[in-house]
Amino acid sequence: MNRSRPFLIMTQSREQECRSDRFVLHHVPLITTERLSFDASLLEDEYDWLVLTSRNAVEHFLPYMDSVKFDRLASIGRKTSESLEAHGFTVDFEPPDYSQEGFMAHFTAQPGDRVLYPVSERARPLLYEHLGRQGCTVTRIALYRPTDNGASRKVLQELLMEKPYGITFSSPSGVRTFMKWFAPGMLKGMTVAAIGHVTAEALEEYGVSSIQPAKETVEDMILMLEERIDRGV
After folding, report:
1. pLDDT at 1
2. pTM metric for this prediction
3. Residue 59 CA from chain centroid, whole number
4. Interhelix angle for 197-204 vs 172-181, to 10°?
5. Burial class (CB in 10 A: 0-12, 13-18, 19+), 78
């Protein structure tokens, strides 16, 4: 394909309305998600906090939002909050840097608070364990699991052959799916960007170095790459 501008491959699970004056953006989601069954009696309790950490968690928990009793709502990520607000919910807390570490640094739960925490079955235990150490009673629900998005494999292979400027990863699950389909050497010569240090660490396990934006958002990642190409890097 004859291209007038360099292009980026964006691999996050959800397409976002992002624009770039420097790049053509190709959204090729590496993973999709599937809802899991869980003990519905957990929703009969009353909670001081409901914590949703991703847009996937919002999507899969929305059918239960009206039936569970909670006083306050916390999220991680601007897009997560926007998704909740779009459905009429008020977010009482989100960390300033949109990261799990920022959540732990700024979230002021009180000992004895009851926290409902529906997440991916592969979610890191970090936040769950932190809230427990703060004296909270945390009910963790394995709400969904990430799965390979096989429909993207052929598209991604064709785009990689066209030598993109860069590729972005937004989760360790996405990294693992990519490495299941392709050798790490396929990333040689292109800029690899990751949202969050956990995603970066997943890439490092395959010997791939990456750069990360200061704020863990897709928009900041694109800005970082635009500034980079403007500097001739």
Report:
1. 63
2. 0.80
3. 13
4. 30
5. middle
